[in-house]
Amino acid sequence: MINVKPFAIGLAAATALSLSPMSFGSLPIPVGIVAAQAAATVKIDIFFAPLASHGIWVKHPKYRYVFCPKVDAKWRPYSHGHWIYLKNYGWYFASDEPFAWAVYHYGRWFHQDKVGWCWVPGNAWAGAWVAWRRGNDHVGWSALPPARDGFSINVDISNQEPPQPDWVFVPTKRFLEPRLDVVVEFGDEHPDVFQKTQYVGPVIVQNNIVVNNVIDVNFIEQQTNQKVTVVEPKPVDKPDQAAADASGNTVAVFAPQIVEPKDEAPQQAVEVDQAAQQLGAPSQDASQASSAPSSEQPSSAASSAPVSSSASASSSAPSSAEASSASSSAASSAPASSAAPASSSTSQEPSSSAPAASSTAPSSSDQLSAPSSAAVSSSEETTSSEVAPASSSEQPASSLECPEGYEIVDGKCVPLESSAAPTKSTQKASSSAAQ
User: Fold this and answer.
1) Strand 64-69 relative to strand 209-211, pairing
2) What would the mean pLDDT of 37-63 be, rounded to a whole number?
3) What is the Cα–Cα distance from 249 to 86, expressed in whole angstroms?
4) Hey, where are the domains in the chain?
5) Which of 52, 261, 341, 353 has its CA 20 to 30 A from that of 20?
6) CA distances from 179 to 101, 176, 229, 250, 252 (A)
7) In 3D, which of 196, 192, 172 has the Cα closest to residue 184?
């Protein structure tokens, strides 16, 4: 347990400690700063404009104005970043999210079905406003909810345990990972982990400083087999100067003293229902973007069609593409016969007197895969031989009977129209057959 003792600015105190707690819940002011500088404060509207570009300010009937970040549906506070241990303050959540300097160190969080996770501004600084759970194999934390109506003023802390879906867990051995978002397990998705851990409490207040050391450093070192580096906070003047990681033995933090708010309000704050519509758009865009690679077949009709029609269009697209591919491959393998089966199916209807010929006629697929074995030299002879029934080529010429509209040429049945202008070879064959 860290024991922090307030002291007056002076030479003796400077020898003992390098930092002095000068305001309730804010960072200690370095020794040597004059009283006028130490007393400088800012208003709570310091949050309004910088956060507006990363989410929406919403009018809230209970908490006045809240900030709802534009994040995906599975996002949780305190899940994208890592833990650093600050001297005198305990675990500090460092993150490179653009709103991290504010929402992880001031104020509280709550979840609402319409708008998701939203942040209630506060005026007291802490390394992280969280509660903790601990088990043999996992450590978990959850953002603390507001303890009162309106903005989160000072350091009132609710003793009520956050609900199971609000918890974020990691295997204890990975607690010091530099990117916790790749190892976190959410309480609503891993109820077994929640059941195997015990609630050990929220941050505590010691000598007007919020201390986040419920999870003991020695325990983490034993479980991770790593030495925890204790770093000191280095105050900076602007939010964009805050660091997402420690450099050496210090970490840059933006932690001004914020006076108790009065009637400050962000510009362009919207109602809850309007915020729900605006916050829903990024999630839809993200889901469409993630599915785009599987459906990238641009079509003017599909782009303007409703979801149902576009879905049917996309479902029929593969079959047409396959048909096109099949026909093109068929054309490359048998260019002369690609149109022949279609024309013969309409003009070659077998008569009732010759059922055997129709029953033995091969399908178009059979013709493409097994062309006639009789080799011919001209393209006309190729066409004639491919449309002839395969079974007739196996019969001797003397017993061959052709259906109506066919005649015998080279021992095969060919259409009469094909023999209207026979070649020399077919003339000789016909005359010899007649003799």
Assistant:
1) unpaired
2) 88
3) 9
4) 42-287
5) 261
6) 17, 9, 17, 19, 19
7) 172
Structural tokens at position 47: 């949050």
Q: H or E stretch including 230?
A: strand 230-235
Burial 77-115 (b: 16+ CB within 10 A, else e): bbbbbbbbbbbbbbbbbbbebebbbbbbbbbbbbbeeeb
Bridge partners of residue 232, in order along the sequence: 250
> Phi and psi of 62, rounded to 5°?
-105, -40
Residue 116: strand pairing partners: 112
Q: Per the confidence metrics, is the pTM higher than 0.85?
A: no
How many Å is the maximal CA-CA distance in the chain?
Answer: 136
Q: What angle do CA 420, 425, 429 make, to 5 degrees?
A: 85
Selection from 171, 170, 172, 164 nearest residue 189 by Cα: 164
pLDDT tens digits for range 357-410: 333 334 433 433 344 433 334 444 434 334 344 444 444 444 456 767 767 777
- Angle at CA of residue 125, ends 215 and 150, nearest 5°: 110
